[in-house]
Amino acid sequence: TITGFGTFLSKERKGRVGVNPRNPTEKIQIPSVRVPKFKAGKTLKDALR
């Protein structure tokens, strides 16, 4: 790891109801999934300012 760069976290995105792109009148259930999330560190934030 690089100190001050940031960290990766694992978050859960909740399930939801979506629309089938092939048949827009059909509703489909999109399941919950775990996704990576990046949180920038102070050093990186300061460098970008």
List keywords for this structure.
two-stranded antiparallel ribbon; mainly beta; 59% strand; 49 residues
The low-confidence runs, each spanning 5 or more residues with pLDDT under 50, are: none
Q: Taking strands numbered 1, 2, ... along the chain, how are they ordered across the largest sheet?
A: 1-4
In percent, how helical is the residue content? 10-25%
Biggest sheet character: 2 strands, antiparallel
Radius of gyration: 18 Å
State the end-to-end distance.
Answer: 22 Å
Structural class: mainly beta
Give the integer mean of the pLDDT values. Answer: 94
Order of helices and strands: EEEEH
Q: What is the strand content? A: over 45%
- Kindly give the count of domains: 1
Number of strands: 4
Number of helical elements:
1
Judging from the principal axes of the Cα atoms, what is the shape? Answer: elongated
How is this structure best described in words?
- This protein is mainly beta and 49 residues long.
- It has one domain (6-48).
- Helix content is 14%, strand content 59%.
- The protein has one helix spanning 42-48; strands at residues 6-13, 16-20, 23-30, 33-40.
- Strands 1-4 form a two-stranded antiparallel ribbon.
- A hairpin with a 2-residue loop joins strand 2 and strand 3 (23-30).
- The longest helix has 7 residues, at 42-48.
- The chain is elongated.
- The two termini are 22 Å apart.
- The model has no long low-confidence stretch (mean pLDDT 94).
